[in-house]
Design brief:
This protein is an alpha/beta fold. The protein has helices spanning 13-26, 45-52, 66-79, 103-111, 189-195, 207-217, 243-265, 267-290, 294-310, 334-341, 345-355, and strands spanning 3-9, 32-39, 57-61, 87-91, 95-96, 115-128, 131-138, 146-148, 154-156, 159-160, 163-164, 175-176, 184-188, 221-232. It folds into two domains: 3-232, Spore Coat Polysaccharide Biosynthesis Protein SpsA, Chain A (Alpha-Beta Complex); 243-325, no CATH class. The chain is 41% helix and 22% strand. Strands 1, 2, 3, 4, 5, 6, 7, 12, 13 and 14 form a ten-stranded mixed beta sheet that branches. A two-stranded antiparallel ribbon has the order 8-9. A two-stranded antiparallel ribbon has the order 10-11. Helix 7 (243-265) crosses helix 9. The N and C termini lie far apart (40 Å).
């Protein structure tokens, strides 16, 4: 198959049962197939795949390696085989697709050989009784493509903090962005191998931002292709309010900056920027503590401790002299602007994009 759509599954049997059938239907007649890499699930996922979806290839991992390790293992196996796929798709198990969702993404990559990765618009899927309902509201994980502000806080076209925007066609032109969500991300296999896959230190959260940023530093492009749209439920593995999720986000955000900011703005400026970010994180921990959210404050503390340990394990990679900034890096303070402008933050950011 030219395109391998790979779902990394860990104990999401019900999502596989619900969302695999429309995914398989959407790929019929196309040079594409589905692979499920199962991270030692214990909820009956493997039995379900064998009984109901024998046409789906499964890769059985011996344990949960996290998002980074799971995809690195699965993609490594696929690309190590003769005639491996040209394109790889990272797809969450809680994504609902419609017929034709893959075509615009493959067509974009075919006509833009300098593009390392692309992805669709992401809309929210919400629970509706015992089933799910599609909406026209952008979804938190990726919306219409990702950016970061001057201190490394990620946000999206269509999503800032937990606030999301209705899709009225305001992002319907393909656009180069800093990152596309790993919930649905098509990557060029050659680029995946060139960059060495995902950084395993991340385990989960922000690893796709790191990969997309590294791709741009290596001279590739990353693009959101809004002619494709999928629906994402979100929160299937870790709830948004989980202290574990908070710890991973704070920790990995610092790793993200450590990996990429020096090559983007120069080593000296990067050190100062990361130092400022650490101060902001400490301020957040104090706010959590004063608000009675001790578990969140501990999560920030633990994130910084783990970051100090993990930064000593940075893998060796080719370096590039600082050049033009990758797409999607915004020299603004998005948290401050969101607090000041509230619902008007999206129109402000669109005006900012138009002038930069």
């Amino acid at each position: 198959m030219r395109t391998a759509v790979v779902i990394l599954n860990w104990n999401t049997r019900d999502y596989l049962a619900r969302f695999l059938p429309p995914l398989l239907d959407s790929l019929r007649g196309r040079d594409a197939g589905v692979v499920v890499a199962d991270s030692a699930s214990t909820d009956g996922s493997r039995e379900l795949l064998a009984e109901r979806f024998p046409e789906v290839r499964t890769i059985l991992l011996e344990r949960n390696f996290g998002f980074t390790g799971g995809y690195n293992h699965a993609f490594g196996q696929l690309l190590g085989e003769p005639g491996g796929p040209e394109f790889l798709v990272l797809l969450n198990s809680d994504i609902e697709v419609s017929d034709g969702w893959l075509d615009p993404l493959v067509e974009w990559m075919d006509t833009h050989p300098g593009c390392a990765a692309c992805g669709p618009k992401l809309h929210a899927l919400v629970r509706d009784g015992e089933d799910f309902r599609r909406t026209d509201r952008f979804e938190y994980a990726g919306a219409a493509g990702g950016c970061i502000d001057r201190y490394g806080f990620p946000f999206c076209r269509g999503r800032v903090l937990s606030r999301t925007e209705e899709d009225h066609g305001q992002y319907d032109k393909p656009a180069d962005v800093l990152w596309v969500t790993g919930a649905c991300l098509l990557v060029r296999a050659r680029c995946w191998k060139e960059l060495g896959g995902l950084d395993g230190r991340f385990f989960a959260h922000m690893e796709e931002i790191d990969w997309c940023w590294r791709a741009q530093l290596a001279g590739w492009r990353v693009t959101v292709v809004p002619q494709s749209c999928v629906w994402h439920l979100g929160g299937g593995t870790l709830a948004p309010s989980s202290p574990v999720k908070l710890r991973l986000n704070f920790r990995n955000n610092l790793l993200l900056l450590e990996n990429n900011l020096p090559e983007t703005i120069g080593a000296g400026r990067a050190r100062r920027r990361i130092a400022a970010r650490k101060i902001l994180d400490c301020c957040a921990a104090v706010v959590y503590l004063l608000s009675g959210k001790r578990a969140y404050a501990r999560a920030v503390r633990d994130a910084h401790r783990e970051y100090r340990q993990l930064r000593l394990q940075t893998p060796e990679r080719p370096t590039h002299a600082p050049g033009s900034a990758p797409a999607g890096i915004r020299d603004l303070r998005v948290l401050l602007q969101a607090a000041l402008r509230k619902e008007k933050i999206f129109s402000y950011l669109r005006r900012y994009e138009d002038h930069h």
